[in-house]
Structure formats: structure tokens, C-alpha cells
């Protein structure tokens, strides 16, 4: 599975590491009062002891780890809502990665949050990549104060900086890497939006934890609940799932027709 860790990524808490799949919670992006993408990606998670920490399921085809995050005192100062966030990360023998997030309101009052799996995909060359499944959708352009546009009928390709929230997207989309002849298939549930980001050349040069040329080999395609927050009443739980698999591009046709079950 090719989820990329940027060469110049800095692993020094409390700053988030650039690469992998940071969890953006309880805020996606910067449209709120919290730090960009929320605090969850900067926290140390605990093993969830209600589940065996690491196990293989019956047919030995999948390994999983169960993690839990509860707010720290500092978190409650800037976001005063008690929650329990359980994350199951599973890897199948074939390399399919799945992340299942469950957020429970253990507060006395309702709360709202936005969310995203900020997924750094490794690609051969960004100009050889296209995304299928987002055609004709509306998107909010973060490069134009979140102005709303409608995507044209063609697959999305890249020739400059992109930072968009595609709203109400299908649950299965494909990222095709023409040069490597491989396709990432992204399946999601409970997450209405897809965020597409590549900083391109000029922005890359302003990012200290990102090489000047690294934008050519990465693309973020994030399953998210970004446009509209999710609201949980006391005792309620929300589930958001992501499954990421990699197939040879020749085997890709038909994937987009699947209903997106994880
Ligand atoms: O540098 P960060 O905080 O990891 O964010 C990277 C990018 O993440 C994307 O998801 C956002 O849409 C961009 O606006 C943002 O620049």
C-alpha cells in the first residue's frame, strides 16, 4: 500500500507528521476556532483495552489494532466536549487498508465536529495522475475563499495547485496513476465529501517539512465530512469508514460501480 511519508517530514510532537493518514478531528481544515485540522493528529493514542490490542481474524487474512483517544485537559479548554474516539486500523494480507472511526458523545450536551482522513498517496508523477468519480460534482475552492464551482465532465488532472472540497461525492472513487499502471480505489462510508490537495511548486517552497519537489510524487485525497459538521446528541455515536486498496489499472474498470462497502 502506497501511503507516502514525505522525505522531509518532521516527527516531533506536538506538530503533526506530514504523510501517512493523519486524522483530522474535531475540525477539518481551518474553518473553525481550533488549530488547522484539529488536535487529534497531534495526540498520542492509547491501545483500546476493550479489544485485544492486536489480533488476526479467523481466516488469518487481516490484522487489526484498536486505538482510543479521549480529550486531554488542554483539549477541553479549547473544545469543551467529552468524547471517546475509537479507531480500528486493519491491514489485509493483500495490502488493503481500512480505518474505522467511531466517535461517541459522552458529554451532557450535543456537539458538532468536522472530520477527514488526510490521506497522502504516493504517485509516480502528479501530471500522470487522474481522479475518476468526482466529475460534475460541486466543489468548494479553498484557493478562492471556498467559492462554489461545478466540476466539468472529465476526470480530474493536475497542472497547478489544487485545494478543493468535493461535496456529496460517491462512496467509491479511483485515483489512476498512468505511469505506474496502478489505481488506488478509495471506498468510504459516513463521509460525504472528498478533499483533493496538491500544494504544487510555489507553496511547497514555503513548507519547511516538505521538499521543494515532493509535490510531484504525492496527492492527498481525503474522505471527509468537511462542508457540513456532524452533530451528536449525548450518548450518540458516529461511524466513518475508509478503505484503501491498490489494483493494477487494467483491473480497475467496474470498481466505481461498487456500492462502497467496507
Ligand atoms: O499543512 P497541513 O495542516 O497538514 O494541511 C495541508 C492541507 O491539507 C488539506 O486537506 C487542506 O485542504 C489544505 O488547505 C491544507 O493546506
Tell me what the structure shows.
By secondary structure, the chain is mainly β. The protein has a single domain (about 25-255), classed as Beta-galactosidase, Chain A, domain 5. It has two helices and 17 strands. The protein has helices spanning about 75-80, 200-205, and strands at about 25, 45, 55, 60-70, 85-90, 95-105, 110-115, 120, 130, 140, 145-150, 160-165, 170-175, 180-190, 195-200, 220-230, 235-250. Strands 2, 3, 4, 5, 6, 9, 13, 14 and 17 form a nine-stranded antiparallel β-sheet that branches. Strands 1, 7, 8, 10, 11, 12, 15 and 16 form an eight-stranded antiparallel β-sheet that branches. A hairpin with a 5-residue loop joins β3 and β4. The model has no long low-confidence stretch (mean pLDDT about 90). 6-O-phosphono-beta-D-glucopyranose binds near residues 16, 29, 36, 197 and 220. 6-O-phosphono-beta-D-glucopyranose binds near residues 29, 195, 197 and 220.
Brief summary:
GO terms for molecular function: carbohydrate binding; glucose-6-phosphate 1-epimerase activity. This protein has helices at residues 73-78, 200-204, and strands at residues 23-24, 46-47, 54-56, 62-69, 83-92, 97-105, 111-117, 120-122, 129-132, 138-141, 147-150, 162-166, 172-177, 182-189, 193-198, 218-232, 237-248.
The fold-level CATH name is Beta-galactosidase, Chain A, domain 5
CATH class: Mainly Beta
Hetero groups: 6-O-phosphono-beta-D-glucopyranose
Number of strands: 17
Q: From the coordinates shown, what is the CATH architecture?
A: Distorted Sandwich
Give the ordered list of helices and strands. EEEEHEEEEEEEEEEEHEE
Number of helices: 2
Span between N and C termini?
17 Å
Low-confidence runs of at least 5 consecutive residues: none
Share of residues in helices:
under 10%
The main sheet comes to: 9 strands, antiparallel
Mean model confidence by pLDDT: 91
SSE-based structural type: mainly beta
Q: Based on CA inertia axes, which overall geometry fits?
A: globular
**DSSP strand (E) fraction?**
35-45%
Specify the oligomeric state: single chain
Rounded to the nearest angstrom, the radius of gyration is: 18 Å
- The total number of structural domains is 1
Amino acid at each position: 500500500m502506497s501511503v507516502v511519508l514525505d522525505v522531509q517530514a518532521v516527527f516531533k510532537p506536538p506538530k503533526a507528521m506530514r504523510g501517512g493518514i493523519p486524522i483530522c478531528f474535531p475540525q477539518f481544515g481551518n474553518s473553525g476556532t481550533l488549530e488547522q485540522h484539529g488536535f487529534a493528529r497531534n495526540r498520542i493514542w492509547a491501545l483500546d483495552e476493550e479489544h485485544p490490542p492486536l489480533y488476526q481474524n479467523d481466516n488469518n487474512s487481516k490484522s487489526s489494532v484498536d486505538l482510543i483517544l479521549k480529550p486531554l485537559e488542554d483539549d477541553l479548554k479549547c473544545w469543551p466536549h467529552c468524547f471517546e474516539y475509537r479507531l480500528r486500523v486493519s491491514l489485509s494480507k493483500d495490502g488493503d487498508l481500512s480505518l474505522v472511526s467511531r466517535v461517541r458523545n459522552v458529554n451532557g450536551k450535543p456537539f458538532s465536529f468536522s472530520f477527514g482522513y488526510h490521506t497522502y498517496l504516493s504517485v509516480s508523477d502528479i501530471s500522470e495522475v487522474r481522479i475518476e468519480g468526482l466529475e460534475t460534482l460541486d466543489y468548494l475552492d479553498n484557493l478562492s475563499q471556498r467559492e462554489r464551482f461545478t466540476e466539468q465532465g472529465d476526470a480530474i488532472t493536475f497542472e497547478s495547485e489544487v485545494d478543493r472540497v468535493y461535496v456529496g461525492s460517491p462512496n467509491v472513487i479511483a485515483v489512476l496513476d498512468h505511469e505506474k499502471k496502478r489505481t488506488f480505489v478509495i471506498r468510504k462510508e459516513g463521509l460525504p465529501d472528498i478533499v483533493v490537495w496538491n500544494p504544487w511548486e510555489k507553496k511547497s517552497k514555503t513548507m519547511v517539512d516538505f521538499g521543494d519537489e515532493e509535490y510531484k510524487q504525492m496527492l492527498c485525497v481525503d474522505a471527509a465530512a468537511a462542508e457540513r459538521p456532524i452533530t451528536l446528541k449525548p450518548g450518540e455515536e458516529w461511524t466513518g469508514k475508509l478503505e484503501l486498496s491498490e489494483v493494477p489499472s487494467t483491473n480497475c474498470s467496474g470498481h466505481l460501480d461498487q456500492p462502497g462497502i467496507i
